[in-house]
Specification:
The chain is 41% helix and 14% strand. The chain has nine helices and seven strands. The chain has helices at residues 3-9, 26-37, 52-61, 77-89, 114-134, 162-182, 200-205, 212-219, 228-239; strands at 17-20, 42-47, 66-71, 96-99, 144-149, 187-194, 250-253. The protein is of the alpha/beta class.
Length: 271
């Protein structure tokens, strides 16, 4: 193998198998498609509802890959077991787990209900924690990677709800500490922390408030929202062999938001 071929081998996912939670919309769907486009051999992904039409479309476009959808809710033990059972049925080892599933209910702490609190904790924290732990025996013996989809809200306040910020901060620290604990097992653990991205969850959150996102754009150095594919690209990098010495990192995919302290005239002239 030539030096060039050896270098390029780090930028393909051929022969590798992945599990993605929340894979039928937004960042999750973009990630599923990107994994397949980069040559993944098998992608098992889940969502709470059926997605026959989507699966048919993906299988048609990526005919050489094994595309498996599992209808389940991974915020519950039963849902996680359903996903793991489907992976075992494929008789594959996992090279990567993408903990993408998440939810938010935007309310100030004085209005947040106890049920909403627990729903977000189960969805955003429990799912990632328990799935990662349960996949340990399913990971490939030569090594694997976990990528957690966090949020800029877990790095600093974003005004989108305390519980959501707490869950994402927990995911960031989970990423760093698990990366240290499992380094000896050759399992890398990283996270991406996107800022507001054009997803169904965001569209639902700002429905009826046409000016809500204008303030977001003004406060972001790149002055625009992120696209699901841009976040998925960062996830893919952390799944590739090319990132083999990267672990315990929380990669901001936020248009410069968390780098900025004050939006002065050199950033936005005339403001």
């Amino acid at each position: 193998m030539s030096e060039q071929e050896e270098i390029l081998r780090g930028w393909t996912l051929r022969g590798r198998n992945f599990v993605v939670t929340g894979g039928t919309k937004g960042i999750g769907l973009a990630t599923v498609k990107a994994l397949l486009a980069h040559g993944a051999e098998a992608v098992v992904f889940c969502s709470r509802g059926p997605s026959a039409e989507l699966v048919t479309s993906l299988r048609r476009e990526y005919a050489n890959a094994n595309v498996v959808h599992v209808p389940c809710d991974v915020s519950s033990p039963d849902g996680r077991e359903a996903l793991l059972r489907a992976v075992r049925e494929q008789r594959i080892s996992i090279h990567g787990l993408v903990n993408n599933v998440g939810t938010n209910m935007r309310k100030p702490i004085t209005e947040q209900t106890e049920d909403e609190y627990h729903t977000m904790m189960r969805t955003n924290v429990d799912a990632a924690y328990f799935l990662s732990k349960s996949c340990l025996d399913l990971f490939d013996s030569k090594g694997a990677t976990i990528v957690n989809v966090s949020s800029a809200a877990g790095v600093q306040s974003s005004g989108t709800g305390i519980v959501y910020g707490m869950t994402k901060a927990a995911m960031n620290h989970f990423t760093r500490t698990l990366a240290c604990e499992w380094a000896s097992r050759n399992i890398r653990v990283n996270a991406v922390a996107p800022w507001m991205t054009v997803t169904p969850l965001l569209e639902e959150a700002v429905k009826g408030d046409t000016g809500a996102l204008d303030k977001v754009k003004r406060s972001t150095p790149m002055h625009r929202l992120g696209q699901p594919e841009e976040v998925a690209n960062a996830v893919i990098y952390l799944c590739l062999p090319a990132s083999s010495y990267v672990t315990g990192q929380v990669l901001g995919v936020d248009g410069g938001l968390t780098a900025q302290g004050f939006d002065g005239p050199c950033v936005t002239p005339g403001e």
